[in-house]
Amino acid sequence: MILLDQVSVRYRRSEPLVLRNVDLTVGEGELAVVAGPTGTGKSTLLGCVAGLVPHFTGGVVHGRVVVGGRDTRTHRPGDLADLIGYVGQDPAAGFVTDTVEDEVAYGLECLGTAQPVMRRRVEDALDLLSLAALRSRRLRGLSGGERQRVAIAAVLATGSRVLVLDEPTSALDPGGAEDVLAAVHRLVHDLGVTVLMTEHRLERALQFADQLVLVEDGRVLAGEPSLLMEVSAVRPPVVELARLAGWSPPPVTVRDARRRADRLRHDLAAAPPSSPREPAPGPPPAPGRVRIRGLTVRRGRRQVLHDADLDIPAGVVVALMGRNGAGKSTLLSASAGLVAREGGVVDVDGADPADLPAQQAIRLVGLVPDDPRLLLRASSVADECVGADDDTGVTPGATRRMLARIAPGLAGAHRVNHHPDDLSEGERLTLAMAVILTAGPSLLLLDEPTRGLDYAAKSRLSAMLRSFAASGLAVVVATHDVEFVADVADRVVTMAGGRIVAEGPAADVLLSSYVHTPQVAKVLRPHRWLTVGAVASAMKGEG
Ligand SMILES: Nc1ncnc2c1ncn2[C@@H]1O[C@H](COP(=O)(O)OP(=O)(O)OP(=O)(O)O)[C@@H](O)[C@H]1O
Ligand SMILES: Nc1ncnc2c1ncn2[C@@H]1O[C@H](COP(=O)(O)OP(=O)(O)OP(=O)(O)O)[C@@H](O)[C@H]1O
């Protein structure tokens, strides 16, 4: 159904090929998961299949891409709409209507679908993505995860024979992500739909994959997931655990890993007493540097944040978790003084950012939004740094120096002449963090920072946030990424329906949950281990 024959792609003449001589075949009714380090050409591969590269992106493509018998270089994306459904990394960018229901119906209308069929398909798609209750809502007022669910519902509704999904679950809560993957899996099995899908969080996608497509440095290696995991540079925790324990070929599901884990469980139980049988509960809360009291926010007629109280100690990393639409982003932006509050106060080092002019507020609280592009306005990284110097009133060159300081530990080289839109997710996050950190805030807030990051980048981000916390910053990360929380967080605050409903040490929260449990904890239950790193230290007797 999908055929790539010796495909090479170059965006700029001065830069190396993004894809090199790629051959790939995905059969009808197969689900292929595309994975690889960040910025190595995964979206470009999907863009070729969906016909976006080069028609929308520019660049030069050599070789042949044929989908359902149509060559995507001679057929423009519009000519492929009846065959291919595509959801990009920024779902909102593709929205053309105003409300959830209209958006889900739009693709069907364009294809001239008969009314009765259209109604049934729209209802099915709304049900599959749990969107029925949001059907009349305006798209502009949806949370990040809600928007992603609408974009997926819209392509599922069209009944395309080929789905091309670029990180379709990146903004979804763990339960929602499982539902979407199960729905896609059902379309593959029951209707013979062909799916090509990128996913950084292999811990949830690998079990559904017929084929794994590894993209590294523009080259592609495709095959059976478990076999490829032996050579892959990106590995979910369960595969890392397998390497540590010497299981070959590595299991790719928790169930298979549990079957082989008796010996490891036994060894860990007998580990020297100095080993951390229990993950450290995290430092006890120090006197609060940040106090939030009674924070309440209304959007339109709906109260979306109710009376939130929270103390955020300096020196710890707090993870903010909860379903899509629970109010996490609202709590962060209200804390930073960026949305109007109906009530409540925030005290950061004795001041409330909402009472201060923007230039002073960002010296107290820095918020890295879930889409760092919202923060970036210039046409090159270098200009962005100059603009940020002006906005924050710091000495000229300070943002550029901050970028040079943090880039090596996060995304590697920073390409100062690039447009921020052409950076990889990791590079864009690094730039946004440099802009925010240059102002020297006491409270650092990050909204879904791991979207688009590979495992290595996440681990570097985690180390960086922990070092910021160690130097006295209060750090809050809103995230759905359970493995990241296991690595980075001391405490977890859980939100539901606009309220803070629970708070506690990260280990307790993660180990007592069914949906927020890291893979290692699932494999080694009843022992209390959260990360491969902790298991490795115990096996080495480091304690
Ligand atoms: N339209 C474009 N113009 C110029 N360069 C681009 C364009 N799109 C992508 N690139 C560059 O091509 C390379 C591969 O990007 P691509 O988005 O395909 O990687 P990726 O593996 O999907 O990354 P991520 O995991 O961050 O989504 C990157 O270096 C990126 O900066
Ligand atoms: N401008 C707006 N107008 C109306 N409702 C809004 C607006 N912005 C957000 N909401 C609603 O407020 C609620 C909380 O949204 P918020 O973005 O804070 O959730 P979240 O927990 O960050 O979700 P996600 O995990 O999906 O990012 C959601 O129901 C959302 O639909």
TrEMBL record:
Residues 273-287 have a biased composition (Pro residues). Pfam families: ABC_tran. One of its GO terms (molecular function) is ATPase-coupled transmembrane transporter activity. InterPro entries: AAA+_ATPase, ABC_transporter-like_ATP-bd, ABC_transporter-like_CS, ABC_transpr_CbiO/EcfA_su, ECF_ABC_transporter_ATP-bd, P-loop_NTPase. SMART domains: AAA (SM00382). Residues 267-290 are annotated as: Disordered. GO terms for cellular component: ATP-binding cassette (ABC) transporter complex. Residues 4-241, 290-522 form the ABC transporter domain. CDD domains: ABC_cobalt_CbiO_domain1 (cd03225). Keywords: ATP-binding, Nucleotide-binding, Transport. PANTHER family: ENERGY-COUPLING FACTOR TRANSPORTER ATP-BINDING PROTEIN ECFA1 (PTHR43553:SF24), HEAVY METAL TRANSPORTER (PTHR43553). Belongs to the ABC transporter superfamily. This is ATP-binding cassette domain-containing protein. It comes from Phytoactinopolyspora alkaliphila.
